[in-house]
Specification:
Oligomer: single chain
Number of strands: 37
Strand content: 35-45%
Structural class: mainly beta
Bound molecules: the ligand CCC[C@@H](CCO)COc1cccc([C@H](O)CCN)c1, fe (ii) ion
Helix content: under 10%
Number of helices: 6
């Protein structure tokens, strides 16, 4: 199917504009047949406030966190949204300026202070942001809105009220954790985060938050670091966005986009420094794969997997088969940081500029890597992968490292298959067949794609001047549903789209008379 749809009218600009929160849920107009048994809440996070007074936010990940909820019940749908009352938001509203430095926007010292106290604010550690615009997920009975720092925010999934700011440093030695945890069948939540440690013991810590206990105690109180993975560069750990987990292993892909700790941990330079200023690309190191066993949790230091440089944000799935770990990823070729192309000015540019910018960016590709677990007693130079159904290779080299080459599952020029979602409860960590994704056309979300990872067949849902969000898969007894929010251009309101996940055909849509700004990730809470 041809992808290169054009967007000359630049309708996508509308999803990067500030909106107001709602005081109570809006009704929606449902067309088509919404199955009566589809009952629950679609919860999603994204930026909603793109400037404070005259001070604009510059990056896609700076806008103040807005939580969205589509409530589905007996064929009816309502839509609600509220700003999260994070410290970043509350203090910005109180002072009518950007108070907390965000991912790509530095806050400036309080202009009301005198020159000396302003000068010294540059020498205090920066206040880490709690702007939880990235995802929302359950930990036990509680729901948390998150970014990737050490602050996570407990929210009420019905009223969308902000309940409590939680500092993970009170429970774990991590500087932050990803917005993409894994949840086990027993309800345990696993995650990975940078640990800049005391004696600069630089590493990546994999943490486990155990399932809730009958005594109702907070699972966070019983959380622990289960295994530590070494950083390939002593003072420059990689940026980590997600990781893989199979039945018996953790998989961490260490990308060549590094955090310069001397910049990040110092009191930030005199000029207003933000998080984006602390990243740098290592052009020589390539990409390393690390594997650890889960139980007992132990790092496999002898398994040194190497391959050429790519950015990776979203793991699709990983599973074990005949002594191999199969790892499916959404990659972007090269070591140039993809987030450099996600400034709001780029996302709001007119279409020709958007295309020009994407020409220079790393190219997206869905890839399958296969990691042999048994790398002993084999001769060097021979492909160790003996799985019949993949062309991915792994070759032991004279220095003891294993060089990986992928099988490409999907590739299109500046057409990314991103924000991948699977039937998680059924397929995560297991051999699977389908993955659903958001199609980025020169970074602009303009289609939903279903990919069969075994045949590489794709099915598409696309509509003119419609800008979808990440599709979420809803496993249900009768049918497998796929729901996502579409934000078409201003001339038509936004709508929730309910697709039949088999045929990718529309079952129903619930339209609402307001624009819904871009959302990043979310979760479905069955009733
Ligand atoms: C120098 C990078 C530090 C790491 C945290 C430490 O492990 C990332 O920090 C942020 C800070 C603000 C917003 C974000 C967003 O979550 C990004 C996009 N998902 C990440
Ligand atoms: Fe993500």
């Amino acid at each position: 199917c041809v992808f290169s749809v054009e967007h000359p009218a630049a309708g996508y600009r509308k999803i990067f504009e500030t909106v107001e929160e709602l005081n109570e849920p809006l009704p929606t107009e449902v067309t088509g047949v919404l199955p009566s048994w589809l009952s629950g809440s679609l919860l999603r996070m994204g930026p909603g406030l793109f400037e404070v007074g005259a001070e604009p936010f510059h990056h896609l990940f700076d806008g103040q966190a807005l939580i969205h909820k589509f409530d589905l019940r007996e064929g009816h749908v309502t839509y609600h949204r509220r700003y999260i009352r994070s410290d970043a938001y509350v203090r910005a509203m109180a002072e009518k300026r950007v108070v907390i430095t965000e991912f790509g926007t530095a806050a400036y010292p309080d202009p009301c202070k005198n020159i000396f106290s302003r000068f010294f604010t540059y020498f205090q550690g920066i206040e880490v942001t709690d702007n939880c615009l990235v995802n929302i997920y359950p930990i036990g009975e509680d729901f948390y809105a998150v970014t990737e720092t050490n602050f996570i925010t407990k929210v009420d999934p019905d009223s969308l009220e902000t309940l409590k700011k939680v500092d993970l440093c009170d429970y774990l030695s991590v500087n932050g954790v990803t917005a993409h945890p894994h949840t086990d069948a027993d309800g345990s939540v696993y995650n990975i985060g940078n640990c800049f440690g005391k004696n600069m013991s630089l590493a990546y810590n994999i943490i486990k938050i155990p399932p809730p206990q009958k005594d109702g105690s907070d699972p966070l109180k019983r959380s622990e670091v289960v295994v530590q993975l070494p950083s390939s560069e002593r003072f420059k750990p990689s940026y980590v966005h997600s990781f893989g987990m199979t039945e018996n292993h953790f998989v961490f892909v260490e990308q060549p986009v590094k955090i310069n700790l001397l910049k990040f941990l110092s009191s930030w330079s005199l000029r207003g420094t933000n998080y984006m200023d602390c990243f740098e690309s290592n052009e020589y190191i390539g990409t390393w794969f690390h594997v650890a066993t889960r139980d007992p949790a132990a790092y496999l230091s002898s398994h040194k997997f190497r391959t050429s440089a790519f950015n990776v944000f979203h793991h699709i799935n990983a599973y074990e088969d005949q002594g191999f770990i199969v790892v499916d990823l959404c990659t972007w070729k090269g070591s140039d940081f993809v987030y450099n192309y996600l400034y709001l000015a780029n996302m709001r540019a007119e279409w020709d500029k958007v295309k020009e910018s994407a020409m220079r960016a790393p190219q997206p590709e869905v890839r399958r890597y296969v990691l042999p677990l048994d790398i002993y007693r084999v001769e060097q130079g021979k492909n160790l992968v003996s799985l019949s159904y993949t062309t991915a290779t792994a070759v032991l080299r004279s220095d003891g490292t294993v060089w990986l080459e992928p099988e490409v599952l999907f590739s299109g020029p500046r057409q990314a298959f991103e924000f991948p979602q699977i039937n998680y409860s059924r397929c995560s960590g297991k051999n699977y067949r389908y993955v659903y994704g958001l199609g980025l056309n020169h970074f602009i979300p303009d289609r939903i794609v279903k990919l069969n990872v075994r045949t590489k067949d794709t099915r598409l849902w696309q509509e003119e001047d419609s800008y979808p969000s990440e599709p979420l898969f809803i496993p249900t007894p009768e049918k497998h549903m796929l729901t996502n929010i579409n934000m078409p251009g201003a001339e038509r309101p936004s709508f929730l789209l309910v697709l039949d996940a088999r045929q990718m055909t529309e079952l129903a849509r619930a339209s609402v008379n307001t624009i819904i700004p871009v959302t990043l990730h979310g979760t479905y809470k069955p009733r």
